[in-house]
Structures are given as structure tokens and as C-alpha cells.
Amino acid sequence: MNDPDSPDLPGSDLRALELDDDGELVGGRVVGARHSGQSFTGARLVDVELIRCDLAGCDFSETSLHRVQIVDCRCNGIDFGGARWRFGRVGDCRLDEANFRMAKLERLRFDGSVCTAADFGGAHLDDVQFAGCDLSAADMSNAHCNDVDLRGARLDRLRGVGSLRGATIGVDQLFGLAAGLAAAAGLTVVDHDG
């Protein structure tokens, strides 16, 4: 496999995300599966693509994901707490209130996904992009950012902006983060009349 970001998947699609006896799935494209609320805690996924699946409320905490792509999926309330995800993509997904607390995300690209109120508290983000994503009211408290690209993302009411050291934003996003940055720096901002 030449490109670590593009899994070399078998030709046939799977109807469900089914793990073997060791809790693993290596190589597979799962299309249109309905797994809402199911637990995949501690699973190991390698070279897997999930397309148009319902993963709302699924528990993927403590999972190991390598070269995994999730595309056009419903993932509201999904739990990736403590997961380790290396090389992958999340494209055009609904990740409202998703949990990424204490997760380790490396070389991961979020494209056009809605991540409102997602929790990245204490997560380690290394070479992560949020192109065209909605991160409104997301929580980055105590996150560790290294080469995180937030340009083009919606950052309204983003919490934990003091933890964004190592992230890149566009100049057009600076005004929206000003209050949070001032608070993180210990500044008191008052109206000139007050």
C-alpha cells in the first residue's frame, strides 16, 4: 500500500460492521449499515471504510483505528473516548456531541462534517485538519494540538481556546475567538462605558 491515507479495500461491500473473534476487522467497506447504539469498545479496525452508515450513539471508546474512513455517516453522540486513530478521514458526517475525550488522533482529516458540541477535552491532535467543518460549541479544553488546521471551520462558541497552541486559524476566524483568547490570557474586557 503506497498511500497510508487511502486504504486498499477489497472489491465487495459488507452489509454490517462485523468483528472477528479477536474484536478486529481488517480490510472492508461497510455500506449502509445500521448500528445505532451498539458497542465496539476496544475493537481494532484496519483499512476499513464506513459509508452512509447509522453509527449514532455507538461506543468506539478505547478502539484502535488505522487507515479508517467514515463517509456520509450519522454519528451523533458517537463515543471515541480514549481511542487511537492514525491515518484516516471523516467526510460529510454528523458528529454532534461526539466524544473524543483523551483520544489520540494522528493524520486525520475532517471534511465538511458537523461537529457541534463535540468534546475533544484532553485529546492529542497531531496533524489533524477540520476543512469546512462546523465546530460550534465544541470543547477543546486541555487538548494538545500539533499541526492542527482549523482554517475554514466554524468556531462559534468554541470552548477551551487557550488549548489551541499549535493550531492554525484564518485571520477571518480571529475575531470570533477573541473573547475566549482574552479570557485564556487572563484579560478582563470591559465596554468603554462600563
Number of β-strand runs = 9
* CATH topology (level 3) name: Pectate Lyase C-like
- What is the CATH architecture assignment? 3 Solenoid
Q: How is the quaternary structure best described?
A: single chain
Mean pLDDT across every amino acid position: 91
How much helix is in the residues?
Answer: under 10%
Radius of gyration: 18 Å
Largest sheet: 9 strands, parallel
The helix tally amounts to 1
Tally of discrete structural domains: 1
Structural class given helices, strands, pairing?
mainly beta
- How far is it from the N-terminal to the C-terminal residue, by CA? 62 Å
Low-confidence stretches: none
CATH superfamily: E3 ubiquitin-protein ligase SopA
Q: Note the beta-strand portion.
A: 25-35%
Shape: elongated
Spell out the helices and strands N to C: EEEEEEEEEH
CATH class group: Mainly Beta
Strand order of the largest sheet: 1-2-3-4-5-6-7-8-9
